[in-house]
Structures are given as C-alpha cells and as structure tokens.
Amino acid sequence: MAIETSASVPDENSSHLQKASVQDAGPAPLDASKLKITLTQSPKALVPPEQLRFGHTFSDHMIVATYDPVTGWSAPEIKPYAPLTLDPSSSCFQYCTNVFEGMKAYVGPDGKPRLFRPELNMRRLERSVARFALPPLDGDEVLKLIKRFVQIDVRWIPAVPGYSLYLRPTVIGTRAALGVTASDSAMLFVIASPAGPYFPQGLRPISLLAVSDCVRAWPGGTGSDKVGGNYAPGFLPQKIAAKQGYDQVLWLFGEDNRVTEAGVMNFFVIVKREDGDGLDVITAPLDGTILPGITRTSCLSLASSSAFQKENSLRLQTHERVFTMADLAQWSAQGRLVEALSVGTAAIIASVSKIGWKGKDITLPLHEAGLGPVGMALRKKIAAIQEGREEWEGWSIACDREL
Question: Is 9 part of any domain?
Fold first, then answer.
C-alpha cells in the first residue's frame, strides 16, 4: 500500500485537446516541478551494515518518468520500489538502448545527505543519452529529482564511515517495435542501494590479468559513454581471469598493448621520476575509448593541487597520456613503479598488487595499510569530501528539499 502526498490527475475528457496542444508546442521537457510523490505504507526493514552486499538491497522508493514521442516527458514520480512493466519488443531488450550513471549519497556531520560532484554525472548522462539517440533529457532536472529522492530515503544511508547510498539513474529505450532504429520512447528510473566497501576484502590490494585478445572499447565506439552495452562483453574475460586467480581484467588495446582501464574502473600508475624529483601520476587520455570517471577527474585535480601535495608531503606531476604494458614492465624492472590504482565510484580507490602478462606477474610494492602513500592520500581526501567532513571547491552538494 502507498500514500500519495501530491498528485496531478489529468482530465480524460480533455486528453485529445492536450495532445493537439502538445503537438503544436512540441514534446514536453522533463520538469521536476511536476513531481508526484507516493510514499510506501510498508517501509522495509533496514539491513545491518555488516550484512550489506553491493547492489543487493534496495531502498523503499524509486523515481520513474516516461517519454512519449508526441507528449514528451510525463510528470515524474517518486513511488514505492516495484518491478517495471515493459513490452517484450522494447528497444532496451532488443538493441540495448540502455544508459546509466553511478553516484553516491552520504550523510555529513551535520546530518544532511550529500552528493559528490553530481553535476558531472548529469553531464555524462546527457552525453550517453545523446550517443544512443534517445529522447533528450535535462540532467539538471534529473538532479533535482534525485535530491528529493535522497531526502525521502535518507534513512537508507548507513551512518558508518565508508558506507553510502549508491544511486543508479537509468534511461532505457522503450519503443515497442522491432527494427534497427532509434527509440522514440524512453523511460527514466532511479533506484538506490545502501552500500559498504565494493570489494569484500576492503583495502586488500587486487590483482589484474592483462588482456589483449578482447577489447573494452575502440575508437569511434562508446567507451567514453556509460552505456549498458559496454559491460556485458567483459563478463567472459572476467571469468577467465578469475579462473587464473586474478580479481579483475586490465584492458589493453592495439598492437602496442596500450593500457586503458581495469575491470570497470579507470587505471592509474605512480612512477618515480627519472630525475628523482617526486612522482609521476599517469593515466590514459580521454581519447574516446576511456570513460571520463568522476573519481578519475577528482584524483587528477587533487594530485595536481599544491595544497593537497603540501598537506601530504608529496611532489606529484599528473599526466594523461598513452602508456603500454612494455612501459609498465620497464618501470617495474627499474624499481620505479611504486603504485597502481583502480579508481571508480563504487570502490573509490583500490590498490593493485600484481599484473599478469604473458605468463608472468609484474609485482607492485606491498604497503602495510593496503594502499601506498599516493593512493591512501587520495582515498582519505576524497572520502572526507564525500562525507562532508572537509570542503573542497564545492564538490560536496547538500540535498535540499526545494525543486
């Protein structure tokens, strides 16, 4: 059962006139001010934080809005979490017209829920929607809805350091017809899942198997967008890596074995400079094959900040450039490869202990804390900003009630 707190019920007798008016004005854009809220009368029991598994538990409510090619976006709803009803011929099932985002809400010391750089998620969502030729979507309106959603389901944010409420905004094509063409109908939905550490082992380093016979992305493809079709092809290589004793795949590309990403995360290496003056922080460039991760750009921004470097007694130079497995092997042989990091929204920052390549392992120095000095400094800083314990360039955004 549910309680409807606000509603806008259309007059069925005027529906034809409304459609004619819409045709003249064009399809309606998504409008957060038209939000309808229906609260559940049967709240779920909270799961103890120590029992949470990433992506297995979901909060009481969800956001839903639909797009019709004539009328445009419907009034968005926050309503009890429930299955969706879709036609079997829908474009999302037949042609994978599915895009999504991953973001988190935290509770700060002031008790207010907060989002970490959500405007970057919204710009990326808009780009992904456009890349799949889905109906246009205003990310700023989506963000207004997400803020209200987080306010409503705030009890689902665990009050434990390192825990959060993972948010999954998703847009799918719902054109109910076969035929290889863009979907002129769509659905937006947002669900939320309380989450602890992404890797069950916590800060224990992960291992990677470098793979070159399968690729994650290619020039002109969708590697720079967060779309469903990017992920399923990685499941088989991941299973193969696991059978060989590795946690994740390190994706390579091209005859020169360029290093791209690790599993579903961006990848960094920390290398001693040849002149001995500090460390290089290196990651692959955004050449269209690399996802512009929010954690990635935050790490680059922090690492290049003189204030961050001074605070952590580090001398760092950041580089977005191509590097290869041969480079990694050479840096390791020279004793210059000091850290390798997988970074992303779910895990934040994970250290890498070894990389399997051509039947051998490139090993990384072990650190007592699980992360090296650069990885640990970045992780602590990002976590402090996310949880509202520190302010940094407006990255942590409080979820207000106003739409």
Answer: no
Range of the domain at 337: 206-386
The answer to whether residue 191 sits within a structural domain is: yes
Strand ranges, E, within 226-372: 248-253, 258-262, 265-272, 279-283, 316-320, 337-344, 348-357, 360-363
Which uninterrupted H or E stretch holds 36? Answer: strand 36-40
User: Of 148, 161, 164, which Cα lies nearest the Cα of 399?
Assistant: 148
Q: Which residues pair with residue 78 across a beta bridge?
A: 37, 63
Instruction: For residues 181 and 41, state if they share a domain.
Output: yes
What is the pLDDT at residue 12? 46
The residue-averaged pLDDT of 129-156 equals 98
* Half-sphere exposure (Cβ direction) of 282: Cα atoms closer than 13 Å: 22
Residue 295 and residue 314: Cα distance in Å, rounded? 20
Residues 362-375 have a mean pLDDT of 91
Mean pLDDT of the region 215-224: 95
Same domain, 253 and 148: no
Helix (H, G, I), strand (E, B) or coil at 259: strand
Residues 6+ apart with CB under 8 A from 194: 46, 47, 49, 52, 57, 59, 156, 157, 158, 163, 164, 165, 166
Locus of tokens 């809220």 = 37
* pLDDT over threshold 50, residue 9: no
In the chain, what's the furthest Cα-to-Cα distance? 78
Residue 234 in tokens: 């990685």
